[in-house]
Design a protein that fits this description.
- By secondary structure, the chain is an alpha/beta fold.
- It folds into 2 domains: 2-103, Ribosomal protein L30/S12 (60s Ribosomal Protein L30, Chain: A, 2-Layer Sandwich); 110-265, Alpha/beta knot, CATH 3.40.1280.
- Helix content is 30%, strand content 22%.
- It is built from 11 helices and 12 strands.
- It has helices at 20-24, 37-43, 66-69, 83-90, 110-115, 132-144, 162-167, 171-174, 183-192, 230-234, 252-265, and strands at residues 2-5, 31-35, 51-58, 77-81, 98-103, 121-127, 149-152, 177-179, 196-200, 206-207, 216-222, 237-240.
- The strands form 2 sheets. The chain has a 7-stranded parallel beta sheet with strand order 8-7-6-11-9-12-10, with helices on both faces. It has a 5-stranded mixed beta sheet with strand order 1-4-3-5-2.
- α6 runs parallel beside α11 (252-265).
- The chain is elongated and about 60 Å long.
- The termini are far apart.
Length: 272
Amino acid sequence: MRLIPLASPDDPRIEAYRVIKERDLVGRGGRFVVEGRTVLDVALSPRNRFRLESLLLSESRVAALGGLLAQAPDDLPVYTASQEILDGITGFHIHRGLLGIGLRGAEPDMGTLLAGLPDKAVVAVLLGITNHDNVGGIFRNAAAFGADAALLDFASCDPLYRKAIRVSVGGSLIVPFARQGGAGDVLDALERAGFTPIALSPAGTEVLSEVVRPKRVALLLGAEGSGLSAPVMARAHTVRIPMKGDFDSLNVATAAGIALHHLTCDPRSFRV
């Protein structure tokens, strides 16, 4: 680990950190931002699927982070700065005082990713989910319950968006994922790989607790409000989570957590 003090927010070596909020909207050339101690703990662990390019820390936090930074590779640049310089670099107050830049690398082909999964596998499928909190929450659940992968259509937001990573508490760095085309393209890829699609919807015909999971199962999740489209529902087994009274919906990340727990923890064998 190399500690590199910064004397100015204009230092060209930390260009990737500059004006973070604005650049979240347009991307940063094959890079992404991680922030906060919990996420960095994942990013510096063997669980992280992506390579870190550098870290940027508030100089006041370096001593307290000694144990965490001991996990960093010897050749990883670790820039340190005063809070004033740090805020000047990022364009807003970074109260956590801890940022990192990761390298995305080549995104995997969806078919290749699915083909490499085990015979018994669970995949979370995000279709048209544009809320970063929900995407992050779903990846957090996918990591917690051991989903083998996640698939997203291009209508869904990027799981490596800064806020999505933060909400996922690093789950976006752990769960393998691929993005491709529209909902129909994703379903075609699942069909070719032998996955049974299960669509989670308040209008589902089967109760989740009665579902016996297939060996290869894909949990389809749609945006709140609009949900999954009729063509998607027609190509899947439809499942619902019963609720009391007239209440008919849950937050999609919450519903995904319930369903993933059932599909990954139920010991019963293939039936659907």
